[in-house]
Write a structure and sequence with these properties.
With 200 residues, the protein is α+β, with helices and mostly antiparallel strands. Helices cover 32% and strands 30% of the residues. It is built from two helices and nine strands. It is found in: Cell membrane.
């Protein structure tokens, strides 16, 4: 009875460790730069934070600028502040979707029904304010995306290969974790049985 309890306890600790390892990790990925006419397009903007910075006060602004035309001021597309997003008036009104995460590390947007006029420069501006005990610290991050609109999707085998490799790697890691769990479980059971035999 004591042996089974110890095995279950060790297994629970191991599972807790594996769950901790499987928690989501922020990875700064570049955005796609080619859109297809009439289809939705996600503009990826990732701004990772350290664990102690997650409670920062964050403001996000998205801007659009016409390509090769610096005379026209940038169009303010979207503002996100105090858990509230505001899609501003302009050519993107009714075609924007917020794709960001709750912790505001992923602050991406999606443009619906892409047109040729959507080609140009997009700016993702992030302002974070960290309130420490004795002072307040602000950080500004800006990411630029150049978007090109094509009539048809271009054949890119690299994206397909990358997706296949990602799934293969996930399957391999899952299988490896299961093997490790079984191995540890059997090793703990065997050591407890030996300890019990020695006690008798």
């Amino acid at each position: 009875m004591v042996t089974q309890t110890r095995v279950h306890l060790h297994t629970l600790v191991l599972l807790s460790f594996l769950v901790h390892l499987s928690q989501p990790v922020c990875v700064d990925l570049p955005s796609g730069t080619e859109a297809v006419l009439g289809r939705p397009m996600t503009l990826t903007c990732i701004s990772c934070m350290k664990r102690e910075e997650v409670k920062a006060k964050t403001r996000v602004d998205w801007y659009y600028m016409i390509k090769n035309d610096t005379k026209i001021p940038p169009t303010h597309m979207l503002k996100y502040e105090n858990d509230e997003k505001v899609i501003l008036d302009g050519p993107f009104k009714g075609r924007l979707k917020w794709k960001g995460s709750k912790d505001l590390q992923d602050i991406s947007i999606e443009i619906l029904n892409i047109t040729y006029n959507d080609s140009g420069f997009y700016v993702c501006h992030v302002q974070r304010e960290f309130d420490f005990n004795f002072f307040t610290h602000s950080v500004n991050i800006e990411k630029n995306i150049t978007l090109k609109v094509n009539e048809k999707a271009s054949d890119d085998p690299t994206a397909l290969y990358s997706e296949i490799m990602m799934y293969v790697l996930l399957v391999f890691l899952t299988f490896w974790l299961l093997v490790e769990m079984v191995y540890c479980y059997r090793k703990i059971s065997k050591s407890d049985e030996q300890a019990q035999d020695t006690a008798y």
